[in-house]
Amino acid sequence: MSQDFRPDHICAKCGFRSSVFSKLTDEQLDRLTSNKTFHFAKKGEIVAKQNTPIKGFIFLRVGLAKLTRTNPDGREQIIGIATPNDFVGLLSIFSSKNYQYNIIAIEDCEYCCVDYNLVINLISTNGDFAKTLLEKISQVSDLMMGTRLDLELRQLRGRVAFIIFYFGNEVYKSHKFSLPISRREIAELIDMRVENVVRILSEFRRDNIIRIEGTTIEIVDPEKLHWIKMHG
Amino acid sequence: MSQDFRPDHICAKCGFRSSVFSKLTDEQLDRLTSNKTFHFAKKGEIVAKQNTPIKGFIFLRVGLAKLTRTNPDGREQIIGIATPNDFVGLLSIFSSKNYQYNIIAIEDCEYCCVDYNLVINLISTNGDFAKTLLEKISQVSDLMMGTRLDLELRQLRGRVAFIIFYFGNEVYKSHKFSLPISRREIAELIDMRVENVVRILSEFRRDNIIRIEGTTIEIVDPEKLHWIKMHG
DNA sequence: TACATATATTGATATATATCAGAGTTGATT
DNA sequence: AATCAACTCTGATATATATCAATATATGTA
Fold first, then answer.
1. Are residues A101 and A51 in contact, defined by beta-carbon separation less than 8 angstroms?
2. Residue at shortest CA–C1' distance from C20
3. For residue B89, what pLDDT band results from cuts at 50, 70 and 90?
């Protein structure tokens, strides 16, 4: 985890300006800019660790990260994937002094960390900002909960189709993309076993629904994939 | 859903006073009191309906309610149980104009409904209140998400044990209680089939872990139940 | 009371998923 | 080049869960 203050990075010009921080005054935004730190994380590096103190708000600018949870029995669970311009770990940031999840880069990442107390202060002094933040938190948690509930209804084929669809349509917005996570991680993300992930991917390939070359996946038959996602 | 203004119910003396509304001034609390409505809902009655406009913040005072979701394929999913002094439907209230879930009484309920715009106004004008509300929302969503993730890891026996434990320890705080939901509803809550709920309950009874008399359940062997909850 | 309707229960069977075993593949390190 | 570890893949088998069928029990209602 390297750090770089990058004075050239002005929060006002950042992608976040348009969403959560849109209601801040110029003065407040300046304060934000001078109280943030800029970081890099290489693929595999830990951005935040479960059960360690929350230092600040983490905003993912570039790359992908996974949110994971290590269970008492040692089993790893991936809760979700964070994409650029996401608040990460927003869910638990107000309910606990510690991160509830691990945040781990699954692609090389750039992210900002904004001081916790500054944001708390902004909430108290800027009601519109507080409201915008509430909306954002509500959206994030709603989306995550909805995704988990959707997944629970599906059986394995449907879940695998779901996750391929997700990366193709939501993350990379292309029918051909390089899967950023291993088969094991897919299994951890959609609550199944590695062998079955592999098996079903092979099945999809055999049925000409997808093409697989190394880590690259190409969706050949989106309609069939979508059907499986909905009815599999 | 009957309505009753009950002038004798002063928000300042309500259970909520101590949690979310603790940071309000007396004047603000007065405004709250005069802008809330008081309601009853009999067991089975709908308090709020999925995809209908959000009227206000619903605070459950007495009774239990279930949060449900009707899926495209008609399958019903219970997301969670709301207990007295809970905000209900808090998750999506800021992210959508419509309720994302149904709220249905599973016991006779009393609840308050506070005008949406008033709360929004309080957020903008009272930073400490905004912060408290953020914390509460964060807690609620964290708890719900954690519960879903916990359930996903378990197989059927573990899930059934989980839910009996939940009602005994969290809701009724007694080893003997009357189950407020049907077998079907248990199945919808922990994502399994009615027949298997029944089967596993019978199994628990046969193994002298619980006793069943009609809707009444008595936890006879809490240790064994807890073991199954954790390792089943 | 009698009827219709939802719920509860159990057993037999089919299906879905996990587990186990083994072999091929890749990537990093020495 | 050799080695190791993690990942990928496939087949055989065991286990968990869903489905189907049938009956019993409750619950509400005309």
1. no
2. A195
3. confident
* Residues in chain A closer than 8 A to B133 (CB atoms): 134
User: What's the topology of domain A2-151?
Assistant: Jelly Rolls (2.60.120)
- Digit-coded pLDDT (tens) for B92-121: 888 899 999 999 999 999 999 988 899 999
Q: What tens digit of pLDDT does each residue of A115-142 get?
A: 889 999 999 999 999 898 888 888 888 9
Q: How many CA atoms within 13 Å lie on the side-chain side of B80?
A: 24
Which residue of A79, A100, A120 is in closest CB contact with B131?
A120
List chain D nucleotides near protein: any atom < 7 Å from a Cβ. Answer: 7-12, 16-21, 26-27
Domain A154-231 in this protein, CATH class: mainly alpha
Footprint of strand C on the protein (CB under 7 A): A 155-157, 191-193, 195-196, 214; B 182-184, 194-195, 198-199, 201-202, 212
Q: Which CATH number fits domain B2-150: 2.60.120.10, 2.30.30.40, 3.40.50.720, 3.30.1360.30?
A: 2.60.120.10
Q: Which residue carries 């009957």 as its tokens?
A: B2
- Distance CA(A64)–CA(A167), nearest Å, equals 11
CA angle A135, A140, A145 (to 5 degrees): 125
Q: Point out the least confidently predicted range of A153-162, B5-14, B37-46, B116-125.
A: B5-14
